[in-house]
């Protein structure tokens, strides 16, 4: 396994057909995993990460990043900023670690969510209820409005510039307003099984 490190500038780094770990660090980087089970870290800057073939893990880091999983069951973390995530073929997980990943008024966008391929939205790293000690799980309430109970996930189907989108909203403190939002391209009738809660 190779470890490949970039610089504080904008780097163009290609991995090998092995299990590589690639660090972009600062600057607007383009990182390519190629073959193998790769781990790509964008770091600071507006980065583009391409997993290639294999089950890859992509971390956008800070900045407005574009993540492309490619083939295989990939794990994509956008990080802080307004990120676009495309899983590609395979059962992919689009993961969020904190409500700080939500850059109001912009949304992180998942471009190709596919239940048929086994894609899932992973919110398990976010505490669903700030008012209770420990790490609580979320409760999916479909297209219903928030009820005032912390830890609810609701969806809204709408149009954005004439295109259908699905907005996922999360209330972590029970004040009936969203503390986190993300967007899925297309009107997707999500169910609780589409999430890791």
UniProtKB/TrEMBL annotation:
Its cofactor is Ca(2+). PROSITE patterns: HEMOLYSIN_CALCIUM. Residues 59-196 form the Peptidase M10 serralysin C-terminal domain. It is found in: Secreted. GO terms for molecular function: calcium ion binding. Its main location: secreted. The keyword Secreted applies. The keyword Secreted applies. It comes from the Bacteria. Keywords: Repeat, Secreted. One of its GO terms (cellular component) is extracellular space. PANTHER family: S-LAYER PROTEIN (PTHR38340). This is Type I secretion C-terminal target domain (VC_A0849 subclass).
């Amino acid at each position: 396994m190779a470890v490949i490190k970039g610089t504080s500038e904008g780097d163009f780094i290609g991995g090998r057909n092995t299990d590589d770990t690639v660090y972009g660090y600062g600057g607007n980087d383009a990182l390519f995993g190629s073959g193998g089970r790769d781990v790509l870290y964008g770091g600071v800057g507006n980065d583009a990460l391409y997993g290639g073939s294999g089950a890859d893990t992509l971390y956008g880091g800070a900045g407005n990043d574009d993540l492309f999983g490619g083939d295989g069951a990939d794990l994509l973390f956008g990080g802080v900023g307004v990120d676009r995530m495309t899983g590609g073929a395979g059962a992919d997980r689009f993961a969020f670690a904190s409500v700080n990943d939500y850059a109001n008024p912009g949304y992180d966008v998942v471009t190709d969510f596919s239940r048929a391929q086994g894609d899932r939205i992973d919110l398990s790293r976010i505490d669903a209820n700030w008012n209770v000690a420990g790490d609580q799980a979320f409760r999916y309430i479909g297209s219903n409005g928030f009820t005032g109970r912390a830890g609810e996930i609701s969806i809204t189907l709408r149009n954005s510039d004439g295109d259908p989108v699905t907005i996922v909203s999360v209330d972590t403190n029970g004040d009936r307003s969203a503390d986190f939002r993300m967007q899925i391209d297309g009107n997707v009738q999500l169910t609780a099984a589409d999430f890791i809660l």
